[in-house]
Amino acid sequence: MEKEKSVGVIGGMGPEATVDLMHRVIALTPAADDADHIHMLVDNNPKVPSRIKALIEGTGESPGPFMAEMARGLERAGVDFLVIPCNTAHMYHAEVAEAVRIPVINILDVTVRQVLERHPNIKKVGLLASTAVEMTRLYHEKFAQKGVRVLFPEADLQHDVMALIREVKAKNYNFDSLTRYNTAATALKTQGAECLILACTELSVIADKLVSDIPVYDASQLLAEHIVDQVKGEHKHVKSALSEH
Description:
By secondary structure, the chain is of the alpha/beta class. The protein is built from eleven helices and seven strands.
């Protein structure tokens, strides 16, 4: 019998987002007993240098070498492929991929592919993400290749989204910050977004707090589905906290 694939998780960015991905993988796995679940080796390392300090503030060291070393360690441990449950950290995806011989799944590619499969005629998508994702244009380039325009909230509303991301990390978000977050989401629809993408795994942690009457896709959920598909061939279809009309 062929050995089932195992997955290595380059985590800690942030730590709760990493655990959230693990929960999603477990929920999506067709399993009747413990042994039916997926073997995940997780380096949940919150000591990876700040992506925000490196990319936005320009004051921090690059996370790339740290992530590459984590990847090498997981490869030595015997995993078959790697994932990074952090959208912003994919600025360093190429550096990580060059450090190992096994595949490093790209959450951006998975998300873009799934959104376009479900909405082949879409022209505008709205992103709720870190300001670093906006600055680095990680999603802009990939969607532009398919003729799709990426929208971000206006500057003041994007500031509110970024503030909420920091609050989720500190576990001190409140009703007011969630209200401003949902205002940003509504504004994206007003700008013409035909669907929304949660492109920050911290926002995935509070996915059920988003209110929207247009389809919403969670990059963390799509990555979890991809992991299960890679290992098991298919994933369970479970009810999501998000709307996919």
